[in-house]
Specification:
Layout lengths: L3 E4 L20 H4 L3 E4 L17 H8 L14 H5 L9 E6 L12 E6 L3 E6 L4 E5 L17 H18 L11
Antiparallel strand pairs: 1-2, 3-4, 4-5, 5-6
């Protein structure tokens, strides 16, 4: 009757792109982390479905038969535990704020990223953009957001990012309510 979750808050670059540690770059090496959920009655399986850390509270409440509270973000991953081919989300949205940059460090104040099954798009408050086709360029070597390499994919990714930012805006987040 015990649920076991193994995960991490971030990955490390480990030399990818000539970088070490986690830094502030939203490359797959930092974003993609292990997630193992062992739950009673569920068979072991692997999935390529998108998931986010924000989904863990929903998942645990769902597995325990406890109702989520109003205003929670994320979605339960329980359907994926039942069927590894299932999908519960089309995108993963990542927000990073770096208040230390206000002190003059050469970092952007904010970085926002959206990951889909096929692409990863990032944009920071300094205007730097990256867009990678994860199917054809899994090592993220060709930035499609520069030099007009794939303007249609860039516009589509920017549209998805804007939609995710609007959904996650502080004003649209509902406050938890007590019963």
């Amino acid at each position: 009757d015990t649920i076991i979750v193994f995960t991490s808050d971030h990955g490390d670059m480990m030399g990818d792109h000539g970088l070490m540690l986690k830094l502030i770059m939203h490359f797959e090496g930092c974003l993609r982390v292990p997630l193992i959920i062992s739950a009673p009655g569920r068979q072991p399986a692997r999935t390529s479905s998108l998931a986010a850390s924000i989904d863990l509270p929903h998942t645990l409440l769902d597995l325990c038969g406890v109702a989520e509270y109003q205003g929670m973000q994320g979605t339960s991953l329980a359907p994926i535990l039942d069927d590894p081919l299932a999908h519960v989300r089309d995108t993963v949205f990542v927000e990073d704020d770096f208040p230390a940059a206000e002190t003059g460090a050469p970092l952007p104040l904010k970085t926002r990223t959206v990951v889909t099954v096929t692409h990863r798009y990032s944009r920071d408050s300094n205007g730097h953009e990256t867009l990678y086709d994860l199917e054809h360029d899994p090592d993220e070597l060709i930035n499609l957001a520069v030099a007009n390499r794939d303007p249609a994919a860039r516009v589509a990714a920017l549209d998805v990012l804007c939609e995710q930012m609007l959904r996650a805006d502080d004003v649209t987040r509902m406050e938890p309510v007590s019963l």
